[in-house]
C-alpha cells in the first residue's frame, strides 16, 4: 500500500473511532491530526473538510457492510437452496458474529451521521440515504425470493419488512450501548429470526 493510502486509512481509522464514541460534532480536526500523528496540512491533503471525511467514512462503511452481508448470506446459500432458510441461517450467523465480538459492537457510522445530519452537505446526506436504501434493497430482494415460495401469514408491506431487519440491528446497537449490554443486538436479531420464521413457515393444521 502506498504511503499516502496508509496515511488516509490511518486518518479514517482514528476519526471513526472518535466519531463512534463522541459523534461528529465533538470530534475536531485537531484531535484527529494529533491522534493520527500527522500535520494539519497532511489532513487537508486527503480531506478538504469534515464533509469530505464523513463522506469517505460512509462510503467505506457501505463497502464493509456489503462485504459482510455478502459473506454471511453466501455461506447460508451454500447450506440450503430454500430462500426462507437462507434468511434464517444468515441472521443466525449475523447474531453469532456480533455476539463473538470482543467487547461491544463499535456502532454504525451511518447512524451517527444521521443523528447529526445538520452538520453535513447534501453529498453526505445523499450517501447516507444510499446506504439505507441499499440495505432495504438487499433484504427486499431476499423477501421477494421467500414470497415466491411462502405466503405471509400477516400481510405487511415487503419494504417495511425489509426495513425491519435494519431497524432491529441499528436499534439493538443503540439499546446495547444505552444499557451497556452488548448481548442485546444478537438477541434482537434472533427474535427477528423467530418472527420471520413464524411469518412465513407453513401453518400446522
Describe the protein.
α4 packs parallel to α7 and α6 packs across α7 (122-147). This protein is an all-alpha fold. It has helices at residues 3-22, 29-36, 40-46, 50-79, 83-99, 109-115, 122-147, 158-179, 184-200. It is elongated. It has two domains: 1-47, Orthogonal Bundle (Arc Repressor Mutant, subunit A), CATH 1.10.10.60; 55-200, Tetracycline Repressor, domain 2 (Orthogonal Bundle), CATH 1.10.357.
Write the layout of secondary structure elements.
Elements: H1 3-22, H2 29-36, H3 40-46, H4 50-79, H5 83-99, H6 109-115, H7 122-147, H8 158-179, H9 184-200
Helix pairs in contact: 1-2, 4-5, 4-7, 5-9, 6-7, 7-8, 8-9
Brief account:
Helices cover 75% and strands 0% of the residues. The chain has 9 helices and no strands.
Amino acid at each position: 500500500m502506498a504511503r499516502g493510502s496508509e496515511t488516509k486509512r490511518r486518518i479514517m481509522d482514528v476519526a471513526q473511532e472518535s466519531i463512534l464514541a463522541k459523534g461528529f460534532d465533538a470530534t475536531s480536526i485537531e484531535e484527529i491530526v494529533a491522534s493520527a500523528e500527522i500535520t494539519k496540512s497532511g489532513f487537508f491533503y486527503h480531506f478538504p473538510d469534515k464533509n469530505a471525511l464523513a463522506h469517505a467514512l460512509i462510503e467505506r462503511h457501505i463497502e464493509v457492510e456489503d462485504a459482510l452481508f455478502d459473506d454471511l448470506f453466501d455461506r447460508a446459500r451454500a447450506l440450503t437452496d430454500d430462500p426462507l432458510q437462507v434468511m434464517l441461517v444468515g441472521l443466525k450467523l449475523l447474531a453469532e458474529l456480533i455476539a463473538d465480538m470482543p467487547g461491544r459492537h463499535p456502532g454504525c457510522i451511518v447512524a451517527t451521521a444521521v443523528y447529526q445530519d445538520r452538520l453535513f452537505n447534501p453529498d453526505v446526506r445523499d450517501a447516507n440515504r444510499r446506504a439505507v436504501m441499499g440495505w432495504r434493497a438487499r433484504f427486499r430482494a431476499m423477501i421477494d425470493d421467500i414470497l415466491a415460495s411462502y405466503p405471509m401469514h400477516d400481510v405487511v408491506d415487503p419494504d417495511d419488512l425489509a426495513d425491519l431487519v435494519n431497524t432491529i440491528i441499528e436499534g439493538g446497537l443503540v439499546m446495547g450501548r444505552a444499557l451497556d449490554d452488548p448481548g442485546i443486538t444478537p438477541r434482537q436479531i434472533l427474535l427477528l429470526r423467530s418472527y420471520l420464521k413464524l411469518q412465513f413457515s407453513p401453518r400446522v393444521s
